[in-house]
Amino acid sequence: MSVKKSKLKIIPLGGLEQIGMNITAFEYEDDIVVVDCGIAFPEDEMLGIDLVIPDVTYLKRNAAKVRGFMLTHGHEDHIGALPYVLKEINVPVYGTRLTIGLVENKLKEHNILKSTTRNCVSPGDTIEFSKNIKIECIGTNHSISDALALAIHTPAGIVVHSGDFKIDYTPIHGKPIDLQKFAELGKKGVLLLMADSTNAERKGYTMSESSVGKAFDEIFSETLENRIIVTTFASNVDRVQQIVNSAEKFNRKVVIEGRSMVNVCTTAMELGYLKVPDGMMIGADEMINHDPSQIVIITTGSQGEPMAALSRIASSTHRKIQIQKGDKVILSSKAIPGNEKTVSRVINDLFRKGADVIFDYAHVSGHACQEELKILHKLVSPKFFIPVHGEYRHLKKHAELAEHMGMKNEDIFILSSGDVLEVDEDSAAVTGRVPVSQILVDGLGVGDVGNIVLRDRQKLSQEGLIIVVITLKKTTGEVLAGPDIVSRGFVYVRESGDLMVEAKEVVKGALNNCTKRNINDWSKIKNVVKEELNEFLWQQIKRSPMILPIIMEV
User: Confidence class of residue 381 from pLDDT cuts 50, 70 and 90?
Assistant: First the structure.
């Protein structure tokens, strides 16, 4: 009599219904392996938030089961949250040389490099995390070198996780995607496929990364007298290599600007993924010694981030680089959904200062379009399918494509972050949920800014603040001084004197009411003042600022 096998649990803790924050737990009996651990960009309404990391409450509750993190590649949306999570769940980390090199930069910043075990792997390697979970590494192509797909071997069956990928026959660094390995796995029998959906709406094929080099050559050949400034994602090492190649052809010196760009390029050069000829790279301070026609600046800020180098250059707040009339600025990237406004603002600022800005030209995606996705589906021929990496519309489109390829609708699962999918060779079903939320990082604070604080920030940004200062006699509650009213971001006091005088009278009236009703409790007095002043201001000017009463006792 055969013993019935357990089911494999697949638990996405982020990365679904959004771009970024990719992290998925694979659990079989007493073993959990986590694939990726990324950040997301804050949304517009997340005022003051630097980045968003996943909620790993489920992993913390099951920390004894977690065997390690397996990373598919070195982009922020796949590795950025690792330092925060490793402080709570200290387990080994596995990735390719470049990926681990980029992770080590982050671990150094967080002072946990020595306490973290890192393991470099290569395409073709198999890592045995436990008797139940082995992961085979498959070389793929993406907009960063050393990207992997994964074949996750469990007693329940094989799960193929594509990572972020495209099919590129002429990559800048490394080999073309290992389609043969996907075919071999397909012949063995694949239980479930999880595949990148970012470009599932786009028809055709994604162009090769090498085609961007031709676009750079064309722009460089036409820009004979002025500086060239190129912005791209710091981790897009292959793109930086092509800019360097064009600079070499057209005899330009290269300036690297932006902290993350400098860190990534330094690591990539040390590991041999970025090759810069001797004497080509100079500091920003040395530009004065060269003609503008001999300079190319490679910088961060492709998403319009306020503190990134390009944004500071555009707003004239950069200490070393100012826009010169005729500068050619190339945005070698596509705006992540939600960042369009900030990118547009930077472009407008650059144009105003006399720059010639090129966007939507010297860029190709790192993600597979529909025809490439069809190739993957055909080679792997999975029994079940989960579209991953994308907003809901991308997941939905990818699910439709899988159905078009012959899969049954009931075998395709569009999951939400936190869903628990249990799967074996006979069936797959969502059986429950685990707690997930967005953990907000503001400066050094992790998770200390929640919905209430964000709501306060939104109210302050939209309606402003009024502070009411009152001094009371401790024994009798008699008003000794005030009320004094201070306004910030509400109305310009000098032009609203009458309103402020009337507001003081309203507060005095509220205090008299409290005295008549024998209300001595400070919190109750504050509530009465807030309610009556709020009602008055709404009736007068239809605004509802945050009201902060401060009571001092003498």
Answer: very high
The first and second tokens of residue 503, run together, are 């507001």
Q: What is the CATH number of the domain that holds 410?
A: 3.60.15.10
Closest CA to 34 of 54, 52, 6, 4: 54
- DSSP strand pairing (31-35 vs 8-14): unpaired
Q: Assess contact for 461 and 47: CB atoms under 8 A.
A: yes
CA gap 347, 306 in Å, rounded: 13
For the chain, what is the mean pLDDT?
87
- Residue 266 forms part of a structural domain: yes
Residue 123 pLDDT more than 90? Answer: yes
Helix residue ranges, H only, 116-255: 179-188, 210-222, 237-249
Q: Phi and psi (nearest 5°) for 375?
A: -60, -45
**What range does the domain containing 503 cover?**
464-553
H-assigned helices in 87-178: 97-109
Structural domain count of the chain = 3
CA 300 to chain centre: 15
Active-site annotation holds for 394: no
Same domain, 194 and 65: yes
Write the DSSP symbol of residue 5.
P
Question: Which member of 77, 196, 327, 419 is catalytic?
Answer: 196
Residues 72, 216: one domain? no
d(C-alpha 339, C-alpha 258), whole Å: 19
Catalytic residue (one of 78, 173, 367, 377) = 367
- Give the pLDDT score at 8: 96
CA-CA distance, 468 to 550, in Å (whole number)? Answer: 6
> Are residues 223 and 193 part of one domain?
no
Question: Could you tell me if residue 454 is inside a domain?
Answer: no
The tens digit of pLDDT for each residue in 234-253 reads: 888 899 999 999 999 999 99
Provide CB contacts within 8 A for 46, sequence distance 6+: 52, 440, 454
pLDDT band at 479 (very low <50, low <70, confident <90, very high): low
Query: Beta strands 157-161 and 192-196: pairing type?
Result: parallel
Q: Is residue 456 situated within a structural domain? A: no
Cα–Cα dist 13/15, whole Å: 7
User: Closest by alpha carbon to 487, among 553, 543, 525?
Assistant: 543
CA distance 124 to 95: 13
Pairing mode of beta strands 465-472, 546-553: parallel
Q: DSSP character for 91? A: -
Confidence of residue 1 (pLDDT cuts 50, 70, 90): very low
153 an active-site residue? no
Confidence band (pLDDT; 50, 70, 90) for 48? Answer: low
Mean pLDDT on 166-193: 95
Q: How far apart are CA 193 and CA 398, in angstroms?
A: 12
Cα gap 163→317, rounded to integer Å: 38
Domain boundary (336, 359, 382) is at 359
